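Dear colleagues,

As part of the handover before I leave the project, I'm documenting each prediction I ran so the next person doesn't have to rerun anything. This entry is a single chain, and its sequence is reproduced below.
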Amino acid sequence: MKRVGVDVGGTFTDIMYSSDDGGIAVHKVPSTPHDPSVATVDGVRELADRLGVGLGELDQFLHGTTVATNIVLEHNGSDVGLITTEGFRDILHIARKKRPYNYSSYQDLPWQKWQLVRRRNRRVVPERVNAAGEVLVPLDVDAVREQVRVLRDNGVAAVAVCFLHSYRNPAHEQIVKRILAEEAPEVFVSLSSEVAPQYREYERFSTTALNAFVGPKVSGYLNRLAETTRSAEVRGDVGLMTSAGGLVTARRAAENPVLLLTSGVVAGLLGGCAIGKASGYPSVITLDVGGTSADVGVAPDGGLRMKHLLDTRIGDYHAMVPMAEVDTIGAGGGSVAFVDEGGMFRVGPRSAGATPGPACYGRGGTEPTSTDAMVVLGWLRADSFLSGSMRVEPQLAGKAVGEHVADRLGTSVPEAAVGIFQILAHAMTEAISLHSVRKGYDPRDFSLVAEGGAGPLYAWHIAEQLGIPRVIVPHHPGIASAMGLLATDIRSEIPATVWTSSDDPDIDRITAEFDRLAAQAVEQLGADGLDPADVVVERSLDCRYLGQGYELRVPAPDGPVDAGWVARAAEAFHEVHERTYRQRFDDKPVHIVNVRVTAIGAVGEVPLSAVQTGGPDPSGTVKSTVDAIFWTAGNRVSTFPTTVYDRDRLRAGNVLTGPAIVEQFDSTTIVGPGQRAEVDHVGHLVITTGDARQQQDGGDQL
């Protein structure tokens, strides 16, 4: 099987090819923001031509995209209409009582300032279903037709249909869907009973409206991509990454594009899981640092964690869809360093971007960035940046750091550069701590996987700060997200609200819902071309203690649902609650709110082949020895003789002693003073941290 994974970023589109015979190749092309499908297909074509592989030979075409995310963040989605239950017109406007600034009387509420649905397009009809799914007021079909015609005349491109308690009885929404097909067949239709079939009134409305908001543009993009791949004679279907860390077909993504929100960052976490597993360290923390932002994820035993309902947001809106636990902060190679009006030394979140970029690029930028700081430190060399394809100017970097930071703080340029690095590294350290220590995981039990163009520059220091024993730098750190696509399975997750408790469980209802959801999920994957016999079904629960407001996800016990099953499920929730909050209440009943079924169809793994063995001596890969700036245990800034290695010539078994710089086309890796790095059997560079550096006080003080 021949497969290709394509991850579209803001600046570059990353591509990885793999085949069952062990063949792996990577490629990187500039992105085309006006139409990402252009760079996607052109890049794949260039890589295929280089390999001598015809596009028609590709069995799978896997894609990660930020198209849906960007539509939401830029507030440029389609005009949306809403049809809802009489009396509930303003749910999207009222939202929850929580406000961004609790003590401000004049604040802008983002979901009101940038409305998903304007009030003139929120239309109500008589109907009512209660929480048990019983019809209290029949749907007024004539009123539905009248409101659909109003929305059609208003020129909406999409319609969201959200009736009260439709997650228990979707019949009324299905009737509206049929009327929309008759009266306005050109509009995109989003039903809450299909998009988010679970309780929570506002979140369900918001998610359904988001799906409609991004639907027409995402569908258009996917149709263009499909047409472009067909005209290029690509044989395989297009699979897209979801926010939950699984793949869906283009057909399902076009129907439910809200699943693609935040999908762009999840592939990096999945790539990190595959990298850690290949090196023998399945529990990983991933650090993916690009030019503008850093993505942080935590995967105990290589498994994804799902975000809490309170955190499943995109921009200013709630999105009640499964989202893998990945956090993004404004910290990257282009983060600007400055001294504010109060004399505080700050770095980011503002970025110099690709244009004009860091001062050292010589493209007109004058503000110092973290990239400029690392040029000053001697970590990024003038003639070796991007393997020499782009030159950086140390004089411009030093001038920017000096004028904007060092002079204002009354310190030296090297000390200011160290400060820029440490401030930004601290922000990343805090983000990792938030997702590990504060959620019941000890980072000392994990390995740190460094990804992106700048991740390997920061990982050595962050690992020491958190006591993480090792850093894993993959052979192609800048292509890790594309690799993650190739390591991803096709998944379909469907929830249902059951609303029962451990002290009086509705066993028949739980069983019936699990059976219904499993049949539906397997049917979906069958429609995607998978053999039902190859599909694995997993079950989970959303639970809380009676009286709590929000749930935690818990793996459901195996076996038939009976009294013993309920007891095991309750114990599993006690354990998850204790790990999350350091408290458990064994005497309290456990409320089972939702059941979930996930159908998984494996599509293969990335075949990481063993690399050539070279023994411990890496002297044949040395490019030069330079003076680079680091700091000792007492934070004394010093110069150290630092060996520079060529990553492409390193072999399995090569051992490097820090301080060292390892250069390659898509990234540069730092091995700190006193650290040790070894190339493992699949070509990953494994940096071991420890106390050796703390005991070292060498170097010439500046």
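The chain is about 30% helix and 25% strand. Confidence is low (pLDDT under 50) at residues 691-698.

All the best with the project,
I.
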